[in-house]
Design a protein that fits this description.
alpha+beta; 1 helix
Length: 76
């Protein structure tokens, strides 16, 4: 049996059926692990672009920036 161990620094990527107006989104869980959710209804090329877009949000720490407009009002 081969067991793949994921790097805790790498985001977990998931495909999920989302409204076509939503290309993807990212978030961190309570342990700080990043997740990127991509729209399974979109093409591979569109998801590749969305992946890079969400990765930039993660690398800049946008989800922790209270002034970042896209996330205003979405925190608990």
């Amino acid at each position: 049996m081969i067991l793949k161990v994921t790097d805790p620094e790498e985001p977990i990527i998931r495909l999920q059926d989302l409204p076509v107006s939503v290309r993807g989104f990212c978030y961190h869980d309570d342990d700080g692990r990043a997740y990127i959710i991509l729209n399974a209804r979109l093409t591979r090329e569109m998801n590749a672009g969305s992946y890079l877009h969400e990765l930039r949000h993660i690398s800049r720490g946008d989800m922790y920036n209270p002034d970042y407009l896209e996330y205003k009002g979405r925190r608990n």
